[in-house]
Amino acid sequence: MIRITIIYAILIFxxxxxxxxxxxxxxxxxxxxxxxxxxxxxxxxxxxKKLGETVYAIRALPFGGQCVMEGEDExxxxxRAFPNAARWKRFIILAAGVFMNFLLGxxxxxxxxxxxxxxxxxxxxxxxxxxxxxxAIQPGxxxxxxxxxxxxxxxxxxxxxxxxxxxxxDIVIERDGERIELPDLYIEPxxxxxxxxxxxxxxLRYQVDQLDFWEVLRQSWYNAIxxxxxxxxxxxxxxxxxxxxxxxxxxIGIVAVMSDVAQQSMYSFWYLSAFIAINLAVxxxxxxxxLDGGRIFFxxxxxVTRRKINEKFEGILNATMLILLLGLMIAxxxxxxxxxxxx
Length: 343
Fold this sequence. Notes:
alpha+beta; Pdz3 Domain; four-stranded antiparallel beta sheet; elongated
């Protein structure tokens, strides 16, 4: 029997794809570009219906979608073809999918944060007795950055402190409206007895403030930007060799994780959904052919050189990279399936 949480996860994944392609579709229609097909899924068509100039389709594989515009990867004499639209229109159309994914993630975060009455600030409420940096940080200080890493949320502080190996940090604070740099602070987590157990704290407690409408928007925005930073942190770890192929997950692995998370907490499920939406936005902005970012990159080259990229060359490059990306997706999917089977 299929767990209901798996259905939740698949539906969210489908919605993320649908929202992305809807962004392209609406922007294309608004800019007067002809859309030949709007499809949810990839592979053979299960359903097709033409309304006006556009064919609407549902295809067999749910993990994908497409908004096929006239002349998108090849030349066309149609004045409403995508390559014949003004550069600013093409930019809006290409960026619209990314924008919709990011917006969806932000809206989910707003819905999660809005019911809360309070939030934890980045301002110090008190310093615990075993705090290793002495009186360098005092109650009332607001932490701005740690080792150059901007602090937006209280969770950013623990994240930044946990990345150091020698417990030495350069911290910037705001005290009484003045920006103060505190170099080479030694901050090491110390053991405390709590409910009969030993726990480790860095020694800082943070002020709690009331949430109002504007603070909900601000905290939602900070969480969204933090998620963008998490994606780039993952890329950095990938390039440094800290994560490898076995750490990657495709749609199958993501659905499995989302299903497990939903069983434990629906709040965490929706938070993960917001992260995946924003993750998709960032991934699609990468300057890689076949992705929106790659197409935007070609558009920027065109704007600088004042010459259009050869459409045949761009089409071949996009198709080649798409094949490579699909091959990677298949390999990751196979790995995910083996992992699930092994349990």
